Amino acid sequence: MNAPVQHPGDDLLLAHAAGQLAAGPAILVATHLEGCAHCRERMRTLQATGGALLESLPEASLPPDALARTMASIDALHRPGREWPAPVQPTAHPALPDGMSWPKALRGCQASRWHWMGPGMRWSRVTVPYDPAANVFLLRIAAGKFLPQHTHSERELTQVLYGRFHDGRAMFGPGDFDDTDPTIRHQPVVQAEGECICIASVEGRVVFDGFIARTLGTLVGM
After folding, report:
1. How far lies 92's CA from each of 36, 102, 133, in Å?
2. Which InterPro entries does this entry report, sorted A to Z (predicted)?
3. Distances from the Cα of 214 to the Cαs of 186, 200, 206, 219, in angstroms?
4. Is 180 in contact with 155 (CB distance < 8 Å)?
5. Per-residue pLDDT of the chain (222 residues; tens, 9 = 90+)
6. Cα 164 to Cα 143, 169, 197, 202, 208, distances in angstroms
7. What CA–CA distance (Å, rounded) separates 89 from 102?
8. Where are the domains of the chain?
9. What is the assigned CATH class of domain 1-58+88-222?
10. Strands 196-202 and 156-162, how do they pair?
11. Sign of the torsion angle spanned by Cα atoms 158, 119, 146, 154
């Protein structure tokens, strides 16, 4: 029997629908939505509910200069000489297994080559041009390998793109979404049938138990 798909919570979906998520979490939720009809339908429900709530609010008067300020903001977007980062498709940076494609949510982002971080473990930095501070990266872990046991100083979101891992709480496979925080201590172990590739967004730091793991995590930016 297949395990049930793990989904983002309604708090994340609602914040995403309202445009309130930071760039990293927004990319993770958008990646999940690409392959999850259940969450897309849930998003439509949340958006409809939000629209109904707006309709029920009393009318409010805008400041006299509201239109002028709005037009000035639009003009600033098209100011001559303003430089915009060129969209970069990360489809070949780094290489992926046959049959796997990059999430559309990563369009415009740059992914580095795979970097070694331990036997059978590699990582890639994802640069978000409109938010350079976003801490987003890819992990590629070989079959049977595992990350050291750890917890988190803040929130970490993980979306499985390929393969499966079990972290002592549940099995996570392609399309599954994991939301962890300081209350969670776990050790993701990749299953024996093949490697696992995930994309993660980290707020704060990953807090590894061992000194060597903490040092490697610092180098990766985890």
Report:
1. 25, 9, 23
2. Anti-sigma_ChrR (IPR012807), Anti_sigma_zinc_sf (IPR041916), ChrR-like_cupin_dom (IPR025979), RmlC-like_jellyroll (IPR014710), RmlC_Cupin_sf (IPR011051)
3. 15, 17, 8, 9
4. yes
5. 455 679 999 999 999 988 899 999 999 999 999 999 999 999 988 888 766 666 666 877 778 888 888 888 777 655 554 444 444 444 446 788 888 888 999 988 999 999 998 899 999 999 998 898 999 999 999 999 999 899 999 999 999 999 999 999 999 999 999 999 999 999 999 999 999 999 999 998 888 887 666 666 666 666
6. 9, 13, 8, 20, 21
7. 9
8. 1-58+88-222
9. mainly beta
10. antiparallel
11. negative
Which residues of the chain form beta strands (DSSP E)? 110-111, 115-118, 121-127, 136-141, 150-152, 156-162, 165-166, 171-172, 177-180, 189-190, 196-202, 206-208
Residue given tokens 């793991």 in the structure block: 213
Please, which residues have CB within 8 angstroms of residue 62's CB and are 6 or more apart in sequence?
A: none
**The residue type at 51:** G
Cα 26 from Cα 21, distance rounded (Å): 5
Distance CA(158)–CA(3), nearest Å, equals 17
Letter for the amino acid at 36? C
CB 154 within 8 A of CB 148: no
Tokens of 111: 């992914």
DSSP letter assigned to residue 186: B
pTM of the model: 0.78
